[in-house]
Amino acid sequence: MNYQNDKQATRRRALSLLFISCALIAAAMSSPLYSARSGAGSSPQNEDDETRRLWNKQFGEAREKARPNRPNAQAQTWKSKPPGAAGPEAIPGAARGDELGDQLIGVTIWRLRPARPGDDRILVQKDGQYALERVAADTPFKEGELVRISVEAPREYDNYLYVIDREVYKDGRGELLGEPSLIFPGRGTPSGGNMISAGRSVYVPAQGDPIPRFTLQRSGENHVGERLFILISPEPMPVNVERPELDSATVAQWERVCGGQTESRESRGDMGKQWTKAEQEADQGARKLAQIDPLPQTIYRVRAKRGGCAMVAVPLRIAP
Predict the structure, then answer these.
(1) pLDDT averaged over consecutive 10-residue blocks of the chain (320 residues)?
(2) N or C: which end of the chain has fewer CB within 10 A?
(3) Which parts of the chain are beta strand (E)?
(4) For the range 168-175, what are the long-range contacts, defined as Cβ-Cβ under 8 Å and sequence gap of 24 or more?
């Protein structure tokens, strides 16, 4: 037996194991599974790519910038944009000039189910108690399921939020859209209830509405879902909540001016998670969301004019 050779072989094996261990640790720390939201006290995020992490950072930084100055401030504050920033008269909220930029809109679709023992947060209604769970934007819903949505935009100043609904039908020619209808704001929306900015999420329908949720029901065999158009504008749009029916040509014009090339990313690590205390308090208007609070489930990036309106389409699919 050669003791010296055995000793050298043992040393080489130990060094090899050490190098392999270091490589595995470095790979794990650089993996998206290990990545975290920006800011102190953040929790790990299971995001699918670098793009979503960059959007998360933009939302977090905007929330931090919009945070109330007083540490004990509870109520949400409004921050109006500076005078003179209005767009052309033809389209309220349209930016001057042709410079395009990336605008982000965060949307979370909440599935409502009857509350069970152990649910942390519940929505109490006249007909029962419900738990809210996050779902992806392309989730197929069963007919009769209940949903709500929440919207947030990383904008420094308060903007106006509008939600337009169009039924989606399918026939031999493909998809057809029904007539557009304004579903938010509504008759019961209080003054300022459709103002949105960084950290200030808006729920649709609102808790104070007579029926604060949507019920997905077919109007016919070829009715396959809904398409919600989320419109955010620095200026109020010419709508009348007493007459929610909208002209198709007008909505098409808003799409041309406020819409653009769009892409989206899901927060894979948050799918299926329930409503948090912070989100419940934001729904009640008691606070703004902070940097460490949950981010929107789906973030959309639309290529639109800088400083102007932005518009994205969100599907609500009804499973066959």
Answers:
(1) 47 54 45 32 53 95 80 46 44 72 96 90 84 95 96 95 97 90 92 93 88 90 96 96 95 95 93 94 92 96 93 95
(2) N
(3) 100-114, 123-125, 128-135, 140-141, 146-152, 159-171, 174-177, 181-184, 195-196, 202-204, 214-215, 223-233, 262-266, 298-305, 310-318
(4) 168/223, 168/224, 168/225, 168/226, 168/227, 168/315, 169/220, 169/222, 169/223, 169/224, 170/222, 170/224, 171/222, 175/224
Beta strand residue intervals within 32-158, DSSP E: 100-114, 123-125, 128-135, 140-141, 146-152
- Distances, alpha carbon 79 to alpha carbons 234, 267, 305, in Å: 12, 29, 21
Residues paired with 301 in a beta bridge? 104, 263
> How high is the pLDDT of residue 19?
53
Select from 125, 57, 20 the least CA-distant residue to 295.
Answer: 57
State both tokens at 10. 């043992």
Contact 224, 318 (CB under 8 A): yes
Task: For strands 140-141 and 310-318, give the pairing.
Answer: parallel
Quick one: pLDDT at residue 11? 57
Count the helices and strands in the chain (H runs, E runs): 4, 15
pLDDT at 68: 66
C-beta neighbour count of 180 within 10 angstroms: 21
Give the pLDDT confidence score for residue 67 in this predicted structure: 78
Contacts of 287 (CB under 8 A, 6+ apart): 74, 75, 76, 278, 281
pLDDT of residue 89: 41
How far is C-alpha 140 from the chain's CA centre?
Answer: 18
> Residues near 11 by Cβ (< 8 Å), separated by ≥ 6?
none
Where do the domains of the chain lie? 1-30, 35-318
Classify residue 98 by burial, with Cβ atoms within 10 Å: 0-12, 13-18, 19+: exposed
Residues 6+ away with beta carbon under 8 Å from 10: none
Is residue 209 within 8 A of residue 203, CB to CB? The reply is no
